[in-house]
């Protein structure tokens, strides 16, 4: 049985297979090149995410393993993320414009999150695995990639080919194989009339 099947969410209501089967790995094949067609499709899905007033405030830094940009992103990662994310075939910085024509975009981070979600679902459907991270130094990324005051990193996503979980260090393997859990939907829905 494949690991992807083992990781399928047990949902309380039927959802699309691509959503139930998607999970965030920390084990990437450090030798497999990124599938360029799958990466392009994921970026295209992100491009077509909805945004307030069609402002499309998202910007992407796409850094393939072995590039200077990839190394700069790894250097900006914090804590445990630095231990595993460098193996990913690519690291993507999802950034957002915080203003447009001098006007603040208060919804921009939400819109960039939708772009990241669309990317993730398409990547999974195309055979790639992903993991989003919040543990990174935003100032370091801004310096590395010349973000001005109106551009801010929202998340960093590792993307690539699933590695051999059995060969991963024990602590990482335990995290990968731990049961997938979510709180009940009733704990998230504040009003349901």
From TrEMBL:
Residues 20-79, 80-160 form the Nitroreductase domain. This is Nitroreductase family protein. Transmembrane segments: none annotated. InterPro entries: Nitroreductase (IPR029479), Nitroreductase-like (IPR000415). Gene3D superfamilies: NADH Oxidase. PANTHER family: NAD(P)H NITROREDUCTASE YDGI-RELATED, NADH DEHYDROGENASE_NAD(P)H NITROREDUCTASE XCC3605-RELATED. Keywords: Oxidoreductase. It comes from Microbacterium fluvii. Belongs to the nitroreductase family.
